[in-house]
């Protein structure tokens, strides 16, 4: 079965859920304790049943603030791994108690019966609010929410919907306006831009396009499928057109994921990913696109990019191109109910039949709302409501009106951030702040500070700390 590309692309929002991280090593950290909080499965109607929500907690000074990371669509340990600015810096500077709260239906916070009707943003926000009510020591304690991508959306929603609980929020790379990109052009366009901006060679995105075009041309030549199996070391035999399309989409997911992890230092994905991995990928592509070049050398370059991302140990003997995502079903359900985020691809050429072409380097896979609805109805028996996030949270074309009275929220995004197309980019009022971070990818401001960080990132973190300190001071003065 060929996985629909809109499904693969949409699941990139939950890309951390497939990472082979080292949660066991984290749990040896004596500074953090694992606790479970029993919450109603249904906060709204008080239906019978409960769910145990996992939290990672480090106690700070009783008089210090509380920093809460609103968990997103993957296990909370992975959120922790990407939040070193909080755990390794801010906590120490401000003597804070830190709590990472896992999102219901992800990681270990799964009910005994997986009835997805209780998997909603509203129920998750209630979980966060109720747990904070139990752990915050007094009403004079300042509480600051943090999150990235989906969890960044939740951090912002917590400040908007529960300002009596949350005194400020850092929403990093939060795709709050993704549903407004109705044709799903943004993500693929930004990733293509990232590769075109590589300091290795400005032809990098062209080489990727060439590789995809070669695969498209080979679809009609089944006698060469065995050669493709050998080139890409696929675990499965490539037997028909659908397998070649799946190979293209597998490569697409890898190339996009590398852009999400384009950090200036080693990061842990399936293992260590080198600094600036987009540049490293482009170096590999350049090596195999030097004269004399032929279609097989170009494809070998594409394979090397996949190998960079998936096989850092060199121990893998083959790649399962169909086993792209694990733990994706809860996130699929959320997209099918509240969080439809269109993602499409339109290729490098604009034509009468493809008027949105010319903006990305990928095989043409247009977004289809009709197909997405059909998939949701088939898999979950639900029909998406594209307007839900606009109606429930005001994240619409009129977002300026929604946030005109909002305060104490930082919206940050990077120049190389694939989600930047869907982030809030304009400061709506003097009490909300937007940080545009040059030479930075997704949610990098929440990661552990590094000497290799660009100056703009250092500036953003410094000013985030200043704002957080101001929010804490304001809470102290208002309750004095």
TrEMBL record:
Signal peptide as annotated in the record: 1-17
Q: Can you cite a GO biological process for this protein?
A: proteolysis
InterPro entries from the UniProt entry:
AB_hydrolase_fold, Peptidase_S28, Ser_carbopepase_S28_SKS
* Assigned keywords, A-Z: Glycoprotein, Hydrolase, Protease, Signal
Gene Ontology MF terms:
dipeptidyl-peptidase activity; serine-type exopeptidase activity
Entry-linked Gene3D superfamilies: alpha/beta hydrolase, Serine carboxypeptidase S28, SKS domain
The parts of the chain that form a coiled coil are none
UniProt entry tagged with the keyword Aminoacyl-tRNA synthetase: no
A Pfam family for this UniProt protein? Peptidase_S28
* Keyword hit for Protease: yes
The Swiss-Prot or TrEMBL record describes its family as follows: Belongs to the peptidase S28 family.
Question: Mind telling me what this protein is named?
Answer: Uncharacterized protein
**Which organism was this protein described from?**
Blepharisma stoltei
């Amino acid at each position: 079965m060929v996985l629909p590309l809109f499904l693969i692309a949409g699941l990139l929002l939950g890309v951390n859920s497939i990472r082979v991280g080292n949660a066991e090593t984290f749990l040896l950290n004596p500074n953090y304790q694992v606790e479970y909080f029993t919450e109603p499965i249904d906060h709204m109607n008080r239906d019978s049943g409960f769910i145990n929500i996992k939290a990672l907690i480090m106690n700070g000074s009783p008089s210090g603030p509380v920093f809460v990371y609103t968990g997103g669509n993957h296990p909370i340990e992975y959120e922790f791994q990407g939040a070193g600015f909080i755990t390794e810096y801010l906590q120490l500077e401000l003597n804070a108690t830190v709590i990472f709260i896992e999102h219901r239906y992800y990681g270990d916070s799964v009910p005994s019966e997986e009835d997805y009707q209780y998997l909603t943003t509203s129920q998750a926000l209630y979980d966060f609010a109720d747990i904070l009510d139990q752990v915050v020591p007094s009403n004079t304690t300042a509480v600051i929410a943090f999150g990235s991508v989906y969890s960044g959306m939740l951090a912002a929603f917590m400040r908007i919907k529960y300002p009596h609980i949350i005194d400020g929020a850092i929403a990093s790379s939060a795709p709050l306006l993704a549903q407004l990109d109705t044709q799903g052009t943004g993500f693929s366009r930004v990733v293509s831009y990232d590769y075109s901006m590589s300091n290795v060679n400005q032809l990098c995105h062209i080489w990727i396009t060439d590789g995809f075009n070669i695969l498209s041309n080979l679809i009609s030549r089944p006698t060469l499928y065995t050669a493709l199996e050998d080139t890409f070391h696929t675990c499965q035999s490539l037997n028909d057109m659908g397998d070649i399309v799946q190979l293209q989409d597998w490569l697409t997911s890898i190339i996009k994921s590398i852009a999400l992890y384009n950090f200036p230092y080693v990061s842990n994905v399936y293992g260590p990913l080198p600094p600036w991995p987009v540049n490293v990928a482009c170096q590999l592509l350049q090596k195999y696109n030097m004269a004399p070049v032929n279609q097989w050398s170009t494809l070998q370059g594409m394979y090397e990019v996949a190998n960079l991302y998936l096989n850092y140990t060199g121990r893998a003997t083959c790649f399962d191109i169909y086993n792209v995502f694990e733990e994706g079903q809860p996130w699929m359900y959320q997209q099918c109910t509240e969080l439809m985020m269109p993602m499409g691809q339109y290729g490098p050429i604009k034509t009468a039949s493809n008027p949105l072409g010319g903006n990305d380097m990928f095989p043409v896979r247009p977004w289809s709302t009709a197909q997405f609805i059909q998939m949701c109805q088939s898999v979950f028996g639900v029909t998406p409501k594209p307007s839900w996030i606009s109606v429930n949270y005001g994240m619409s074309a009129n977002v300026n009106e929604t946030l005109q009275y909002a305060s104490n929220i930082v919206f940050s995004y990077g120049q190389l951030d694939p989600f930047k197309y869907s982030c809030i980019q304009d400061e709506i009022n003097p009490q909300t702040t937007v940080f545009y971070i040059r030479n930075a990818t997704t949610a990098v401001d929440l990661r552990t500070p590094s000497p290799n960080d660009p100056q703009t990132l250092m500036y953003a973190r410094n000013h985030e700390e200043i704002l957080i300190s101001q929010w804490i001071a304001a809470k102290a003065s208002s309750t004095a």
